Amino acid sequence: MSPAEKAAFLANIVPHPQRGDLLRDVPILRGLTESQRDKLGGLMRERNFKTGQSVFKDGDVADGFYIIVEGSVTVSKVSPTTGKYV
Fold first, then answer.
1. pLDDT value at residue 11
2. What is the pLDDT of residue 86?
3. Buried/exposed 33-66: b ≥16 CB within 10 Å, e otherwise
């Protein structure tokens, strides 16, 4: 992305203060200003998952990151030596 494309992209983000407030408690994002959190909140999309549903699998290409607002997740991986989840 060129600097001009990046500037245009950033200028068109509609801040979302409610989602920005969620980010205040995310440790890795604590250094952001309120304005930066609100802009990042404008890029967020809510996703809902059913119990037992996979969010992503080992080897998937990352296209974002997840913030768990409600509920919990289990992170597991199949051991190459035993074939069991660890």
1. 84
2. 78
3. eeeebbbbbeeeeeeeeeeeeeeeeeeeeeeeee
Residue 63: both structure tokens together: 């296209």
What's the CA gap between 47 and 54, in Å, rounded?
12
**pLDDT class of 41 with cuts at 50, 70, 90:** very high
**Under 8 Å between Cβ of 86 and 76:** yes
Residue 31, pLDDT above cutoff 90: yes
What is the reported pTM? 0.69
Average pLDDT along the chain: 89
> Which amino acid does the sequence have at 62?
A
Question: Do the beta carbons of residue 38 and residue 16 sit within 8 Å?
Answer: yes
Alpha-carbon distances of 70 from 48, 49, 73, rounded to whole Å: 10, 11, 10
User: DSSP alpha helices (H): ranges in 15-76?
Assistant: 17-23, 34-43
